[in-house]
Amino acid sequence: MMRSSDGVTDTSSSIGVSGWGKAAPVLAVYVAISLCGFVPIWIIAATSAPPTSAWVGVAVATVVAGARFAWVIGSGRRRIFEMCVWLFFYVFLGVAPLVQLRDQVDPSTTPDLPHDHDWTAVVIVLTAQVSYIAGNWWAARSRHRGNILPRGRIVDGHRTNVFLLALSALAVAYVGLVGPATLFLNRTERGQVTANVFGNDVLVTVLNAFVSVGLLVAIVARLEVERRRRVRSGQSRYLPVVLACIPLALIVNPIGSPRFTVLTVALGLFAAMGAYKSLARYRLTALVALGSMFLLFPVLDTFRRTLENTIEITDPLVSLKSGDFDGFSQIINTAAFVEVNGISWGNQILGVLLFFVPRSMWAEKPTDTGILLADFRGYAFTNLSAPLPAELYINGGWFALVLGSLVFGYVVYRLDARAELQLMRIGIPTVLGCVLPFYLIFAMRGSLLQATANLAVMLLTWFLVSRSADVSSQSRTGASGSASRKSK
């Protein structure tokens, strides 16, 4: 066995699945040159020279994100979670605001921005990036160095079968109650029909989460069970998974479902079917995901309000100025809000943690941070984002921003380490490694209150279908199983 530079024992040689030790420095250099050089230079050449110098700071943040993204996909290990983190930073808090500031165009959803706070927003983004990297480094150099994370949670076959059956039945009942045709209405009309059927807004939110991402987690868990069975005996049974995917596909479709839910389901299933089995597949997925954020992300919102629209792929320099990319604008608004009203001392986070409490029981329940900022600025449209750095800053100022980003970097490293261990063992990531990374982009884009219901159901379902176990012994079992099959 070999030990990686991160201090985690490499078992890939004994398991026979592509793992650490196959870095691609040439690819990393080419990607870095493209993301840190060609793209920013192209944007600067294609846009006008603004009176503010804040775009220089945004260009620095773009280069940091691009360089880190290039390093992540050129690394000798599959950093699925971190890849998504830097994809978010590069697109939403790098390239998009660079275009907006250079052309002096505010997104239509956040007009008349207080641009005297531009540099504060730049420093917030850079602080979040540096603190995140420090947290990632801290995890790699922590007391767990040289440890293959022996304790963790693994999927339990019996629990998985129970919850797959229960959530599949719930999904079928959901389809029956709202009607299959309703599921293919535009998002606005579908939401109205669903609200009329179930009445309570909190119930609708939680139920939607269980029949979408909850069912997804159960399906991915069952795929993991079958993958383990295949490693041990060469046999697998996928009929229950296929049957469960039918109501899931009806409920989560590109017309009537939020785009992040559609992407989470599609990419979660894609990952569970082997999208990251090799480093080559992982790198290809990362590059395709990056390109999709520029080209397909705006397109997936085509049928949000009407089915009469036609799908059009627009010039990225145009789409990057739209309300889909209002993250940096909302950080500017956050800086202005804090200057006028001060920080919320954790009040916004409290609303996130207690999202399930209805307003009828808690009249003073904090509103969504995006709505809070929209009301502060007097915007008519309130369904706005609130990126993670903005959420941290509005709750606790610079201290919360640094500490929160540091802890976030630490947690992401641990999630990636566990996902990679399982990839080396059976060729697919952990359940969370399949379903959570791309949803993490939505959670980071914010606001957190919007993302919390799905995230909470995702984590709860994962907890219910898994059990605590010695991961190192599971790794040895997987290795011996693979070796025994090869010897036959």
TrEMBL record:
Keyword field contains Transmembrane helix: yes
The portions of this protein that span the membrane are 27-48, 54-73, 80-99, 119-140, 161-182, 202-225, 237-254, 283-300, 392-411, 423-442, 448-465
Keyword annotations for this protein, in alphabetical order, are: Membrane, Transmembrane, Transmembrane helix
Q: Does the keyword Transmembrane helix apply?
A: yes
Q: What is the official name of this protein in its record? A: Oligosaccharide repeat unit polymerase
Q: Which organism is it from?
A: Microbacterium limosum
